[in-house]
Design brief:
Elements lengths: L2 H25 L3 E3 L2 E9 L2 E16 L2 E8 L15 E11 L3 E6 L18 E5 L5 E14 L2 E7 L7 E5 L4 H33 L7 H33 L1
Antiparallel strand pairs: 1-10, 2-3, 2-9, 3-4, 4-7, 5-6, 5-8, 8-9, 8-10
C-alpha cells in the first residue's frame, strides 16, 4: 500500500468517525416536549365548570436556570359577565417530577382584550423560572390554574392525571453546595490553625520557664548576682584574716 493510499484511507476513516459522533450527539435527547390534554374542573363563584385544554410547556436555558413557558391552546371556564381589558389575572403551578420534585409558579399578563360573557376564558402564556436541585431527567406537568377577576377567584384543578408536557435532562446548580463546602472547609482550617497555635504554646510552656522580661535583662541580672556573690566572699575572707592578725 502506497503512502498516498494510506493517507486517503485514514482521512476517510476519520471522516466516518466524525459523522458517527455527530449522529450520536444528535440522537441524544436534551428535551422532550408534548402537548397534553388537561381536563380542568373549575370552582367558580357561580358553580362548578369543566373544560379540556391542550397544554404545552416549553423551556429556554439561562445559565443554570430554565425559563418555563406554559401555554393553553383552548379557553377554560367562563364568566357570566363581560371581563373588560385587564380585568382577569391568571397564574398557575407546574408540578416537577422525575429526578427532582416540587412546583414552579408561573404567571403572566392580564387579558389584553375584553372577554365576552359566557365564553371560554383564553389564558395568556404564563412563565416562571426553574432552578434544578437534582441532576437527571426531570418532568414538568400542568398543575392548578388560578383565575382572579372582578374581586373573585376561580380555581381549576386537573382531574385526568395528565402526563408531563415537558421532560428535560438537567444538571443541579453547584452554587449552594459549593459555597457551603467552601465555608465548611474554611471553618475547619481556621479551627485547625487555632489548635496548632494552642499546641505550640503548650509545648513552649512545657519545655521552658516563662520569661518575665527580655533575655538581655535576665543575663544582666545573672551577672550582677555573680558579682555581688564574689564581693561578699572576698569581704568575708578579709575580715577573717584581720581577726586572726589581731589575736596574734
Amino acid at each position: 500500500m502506497s503512502y498516498r493510499t494510506y493517507q486517503k484511507r485514514t482521512a476517510a476513516l476519520a471522516f466516518a468517525a466524525a459523522l458517527a459522533g455527530s449522529a450520536v450527539l444528535m440522537a441524544a435527547p436534551v428535551a422532550e416536549a408534548d402537548v397534553v390534554n388537561v381536563n380542568y374542573q373549575c370552582k367558580t363563584p357561580i358553580g362548578d365548570k369543566s373544560a379540556v385544554s391542550p397544554i404545552d410547556i416549553k423551556s429556554v436555558k439561562s445559565g443554570s436556570d430554565y425559563k418555563l413557558t406554559m401555554s393553553w391552546q383552548k379557553g377554560v371556564s367562563s364568566s357570566p359577565v363581560e371581563l373588560g381589558k385587564g380585568a382577569m389575572s391568571p397564574s398557575a403551578v407546574i408540578k416537577v417530577g422525575g429526578a427532582d420534585s416540587g412546583t414552579v409558579a408561573v404567571s403572566g399578563p392580564a387579558n389584553a382584550a375584553a372577554i365576552p360573557a359566557n365564553t371560554p376564558i383564553k389564558i395568556s402564556d404564563l412563565s416562571g423560572t426553574y432552578t434544578p436541585k437534582k441532576t437527571g431527567k426531570v418532568t414538568f406537568t400542568a398543575g392548578v390554574l388560578t383565575i382572579k377577576a372582578l374581586g373573585t377567584t376561580t380555581t381549576c384543578t386537573p382531574t385526568n392525571n395528565p402526563g408531563p408536557s415537558l421532560t428535560l435532562d438537567v444538571t443541579a446548580a453547584s452554587d449552594g453546595s459549593g459555597s457551603s463546602g467552601s465555608s465548611s472547609s474554611g471553618g475547619s482550617s481556621s479551627s485547625g490553625g487555632s489548635t496548632g497555635s494552642t499546641g505550640s504554646t503548650g509545648t513552649d510552656s512545657g519545655g521552658q520557664l516563662p520569661q518575665t522580661g527580655p533575655a538581655d535583662s535576665a543575663i544582666a541580672l545573672g551577672t550582677l548576682g555573680g558579682t555581688v556573690l564574689l564581693a561578699g566572699a572576698a569581704g568575708t575572707l578579709w575580715l577573717t584574716r584581720r581577726h586572726q592578725t589581731t589575736r596574734r
